[in-house]
Amino acid sequence: xxxxxxxxxxxxxxxxxxxxxxxxxxxxxxxxxxxxxxxxxxxxxxxxxxxxxxxxxxxxxxxxxxxxxxxxxxxx
Length: 76
Description:
Number of helices: 0
Order of helices and strands: EEEEEE
Number of strands: 6
Distance between the termini: 30 Å
Strand order of the largest sheet: 1-6-5-2
Radius of gyration: 14 Å
Largest sheet: 4 strands, mixed
Structural class: mainly beta
């Protein structure tokens, strides 16, 4: 059985950082020591960042978008 995972992105036109929860979509990745960087949410919660890198998004119409300095966090 072949299972295909589709990656969805939520568009926010004015984010401070881009965040991804799936490690497999990173083309380049640099691991960050746990506890060095956190993402702070509007509800005063914080989430640990495990890495930073570049993600490639294949858009409709054949266009490609590269997002650099994307944060990798599991709990977002």
